[in-house]
Design a protein that fits this description.
Elements (H helix, E strand, L loop, with lengths): L3 E6 L3 H12 L4 E7 L2 H11 L3 E5 L7 H12 L4 E6 L7 H7 L3 E4 L4 H12 L9 H26 L4 H11 L4 H8 L3 H15 L4 H10 L2 H9 L1
Parallel strand pairs: 1-2, 1-3, 3-4, 4-5
């Protein structure tokens, strides 16, 4: 019977040794290598061609494991990756699944759970854990809503005049009518007239409401987008 070839990746030596010890005792598993970083994981994945990688998320960077998974999947999509995490609510789990991770192991999980995850992933019979599917759906819904809001705002911004756009940026940066008037060398009455036009296009009552919306959508990124 062919053994499951496993690569263990974690930046903490004790954790690498722990997983290596428990997995090496299994008759159907063979730890073919250890790595301490995302970069080393990519290198050893190329050299050793493991069946399964146990991959820590946060190593040399906060998303090193996810970045390494993306790279590994690009040159060998058949390698199955299981993420190692500290707790189930890890903020990067969604990104990990998008990168092609098949399951995750909490480092404090029982040995039985860990072995079951490896065998199930290797056999390609994994079903999403209860709650994980809901989290993924919720995240996709949030991203879709955010994207639709961004398109809505960009559509409005495209209808602003250059002068209105500059005034909008001034309010976003926290400037008052008086300051904007002085820096742009126009009267406050002119500023108010342009503000009324901006409010009409956004269908809002105050610039505070407009600024609040823009901050929710990270207006600084929108500005960059309009300049490219």
């Amino acid at each position: 019977m062919d053994k499951i070839k496993i690569l263990v990746v974690d930046d903490i030596a004790d954790i690498r040794e722990y997983f290596s010890m428990i997995l090496s005792k299994e008759p159907d598993m063979d730890v073919v290598g250890l790595a301490s970083s995302g970069v080393e994981a990519i290198q050893k994945a190329r050299e050793l061609k493991p069946d399964v990688i146990l991959m820590d998320i946060q190593m040399e960077t906060r998303t090193a494991g996810i970045d390494a998974t993306n790279a590994i999947k690009s040159f060998n999509p058949n390698i199955r990756v299981i993420i190692l995490t500290i707790h189930e609510e890890d903020e990067f789990l969604f990104q990990a699944y998008c990168a092609g991770v098949m399951d995750y192991i909490v480092k404090t999980d029982s040995i039985t759970q860990i072995l079951n995850s490896i065998r199930t992933v290797y056999a390609n019979k994994l079903m999403l854990r209860p709650g994980v599917a809901d989290k993924i759906i919720d995240e996709f819904t949030r991203l879709k809503t955010q994207q639709e809001s961004l398109i809505y705002i960009l559509n409005i911004i495209s209808k602003l005049t250059n002068s209105e756009f500059e005034i909008l940026k001034c309010f976003y940066e926290g400037n008052s009518y008086k300051t904007i008037s002085e820096t742009r060398f126009v009267s406050q009455a002119t500023i108010k007239s342009q503000v009324n036009s901006i409010l009409k296009k956004f269908e809002m009552k105050t610039m505070k409401d407009v600024v609040k919306l823009l901050k929710q959508m990270n207006f600084s990124e929108i500005i960059k987008g309009t300049m490219t």
